[in-house]
Design brief:
Helix content is about 55%, strand content about 15%. By secondary structure, the chain is of the alpha/beta class.
Length: about 240
């Protein structure tokens, strides 16, 4: 079970920018991942034990304030915000960025766009098998590919909670020196295969509604049922804390 009240969450973009260099695991938390972590112990463990956790949802920001939580984020920090910040920083000095996850088609689109927007970044990619769990030899192949590249920035994109659990379980096998972010949806946003909500929707914390309207069959359970479940879980947590 994940206790929002006691979580250490990055409170602002300034705090995110101030994270030290070196090997750091950065995860995101939103209403969906909070709900999922209530029943998935390994996922909860992965979120708690990462090096930084960013509030990718206005619901998390509001819930932390309502719960009088240990961390009180001042703003939503989306996975996209993390991505842009890290890519711009790396592009300024030059280096290698590794994208692990998604399909070959998406990864090729990422390479093409990155070549235009971040010309000083060398892009390497790996598309893992599309399956719930990898065999030991498949895990080894992924880890070896990342270690060979020795990247200056690593993105893992396999949707939550798979991406967070995989990275957490294999963290000590990754001989890297860089920031690592688990940002599944951002792969599709950057590739252009999924359109992100317009800025006005984002500013009014309605990105979830935009995604629901665009993909109702895939997203209705996550947002209609999930948002109600989130409120229920937060209320339970507050009640226990009294």
């Amino acid at each position: 079970m994940l206790i929002l009240k006691s979580l250490s969450i990055v409170e602002s973009m300034d705090a995110l920018k101030a994270l030290p260099e070196g090997k750091l695991l950065i995860n995101t938390i939103n209403a969906h991942s909070y709900n999922t972590a209530q029943k998935d112990e390994l996922f909860a463990e992965a979120l708690v034990n990462g090096d930084a956790l960013i509030p990718d949802g206005a619901s998390i920001v509001k819930a932390c304030k309502w719960l009088n939580a240990q961390s009180k984020p001042k703003e939503r920090i989306a996975g996209w915000d993390l991505f842009v910040m890290e890519m711009e920083k790396l592009n300024a000095r030059g280096g290698t960025c590794f994208f692990m996850g998604s399909s070959e088609k998406v990864l090729e689109l990422i390479k093409k766009r990155a070549a235009l927007e971040y010309p000083r970044i060398r892009i390497e990619t790996y598309s893992p098998p599309y399956k719930p769990e990898f065999a030991p030899e498949e895990n080894k192949a992924i880890i070896d590919a990342i270690n060979r590249a020795n990247p200056d920035l690593l993105w893992i994109g396999m949707t939550a909670p798979k991406q967070e659990k995989w990275t957490y379980l294999h963290w000590n096998e990754l001989n890297i020196h860089c920031h690592t972010g688990t940002i599944g949806a951002v792969f599709d946003f950057f590739a252009g295969t999924v359109k992100r909500a317009p800025l006005k929707w984002q500013k009014h914390s309605l990105e979830w509604l935009y995604r629901l309207l665009k993909e109702p069959k895939r997203m209705w359970k996550r947002y209609i049922i999930g948002n109600s479940l989130f409120l229920l879980n937060v209320m339970k947590e507050r009640k226990k804390g009294k």
